[in-house]
Amino acid sequence: MDWTLLPRLAARLVYSSLHDPAIEGARSSTDALVQVVYHSGDYAIDLQIEPEADSSAMALVGQAVNRKLPGQPLAGVPVCLMARKKLLATTQSNRFGEFCLMSEFQNGLKLCMPIEAIGRHVEIPLDKLLAGMRP
Is residue 135 in some structural domain? Predict the structure, then answer.
C-alpha cells in the first residue's frame, strides 16, 4: 500500500527548545541541538535535530510513543525523511519506538510516519525548526 495516500494525522508542536530562555552567560550558537515534542492523535513524537560538526549534514533522532498507553512505544513503524515529495532517507522505529535519520540541510524537509494500524500518517514539517541551524 502507498502510505502517501493515507489521510494525514495533524501534528501539533507542544514543546520546542528554541523557545527556552538562554542560559545566563552562555553565548548563542547556530549549531546547537534543537529538541521538539509533537502530539499527533494518541501519539507523542520527541525529536532532536543536531547538525554534524563541520558539515552540511544533520542527525534527526527521535522516539514515538502512545500517549494513551504510557510506556507503549510505537515500534516497527516506517519513518521517512522527505524533501517535498522526494524520499531522502528511511528507517523503521525499533522496539522502543526510537529512530535515527541522517540528511543534508535543505528546504522542504518533513518527517513522515505512516501508521497503518490507524490508517493515517503523521507529517511534521521541519523548515521552521531548521531555519536558524542551516550552515
Answer: no
Q: What is the pLDDT of residues 64-116, one digit of tens each?
A: 999 998 879 999 999 999 998 899 999 999 999 999 999 998 889 999 999 98
pLDDT beyond 70 at 48: yes
* CB of 21 closer than 8 Å to CB of 135: no
Which run of H or E residues covers position 128? helix 127-130
Compute the half-sphere exposure of residue 63: CA atoms within 13 Å on the CB side of its CA.
10
- How many domains does one find in the chain? 1
**pLDDT for residue 33:** 83
In a domain, 88, yes or no: yes
Q: Map residue 3 onto helix, strand or coil.
A: helix
Q: Work out whether strand 57-66 and strand 12-16 pair parallel, antiparallel, or are unpaired.
A: unpaired
Looking up cell 510506556 gives 71
Question: Is residue 61 included in any domain, yes or no?
Answer: yes
Let me know how long the chain is.
Answer: 135
The answer as to whether 134 is a domain residue is no
